[in-house]
Design a protein that fits this description.
This protein is mostly helical. About 80% of the residues lie in helices and about 0% in strands. It has four helices and no strands.
Amino acid sequence: MVHKSKKRYANEFKAHAVELVRVSGKSATEIAKDLGISTAALCRWVGKAEAAASRSPSESQEQELKRLRREVETLRMERDFLKKAAAFFAKESK
């Protein structure tokens, strides 16, 4: 019984193959054939890349998150100030 050794591909090669699937307009099968790899391997790489992309926020999302956190902090400070001002004026009017 002969065992095939599992081929290992560089991460750069995998990333290039995934990018081809995304932008070329060709099917994964065509690209896999052109690159000399199995369609199953290419589809697995594409799936992993999509899963990784959905887990990590993009740079614009990260910037938006920072902006919103600053805004929330500002709104909390304004709210606290208004509470104190309302309490002060309520005490003064009695």
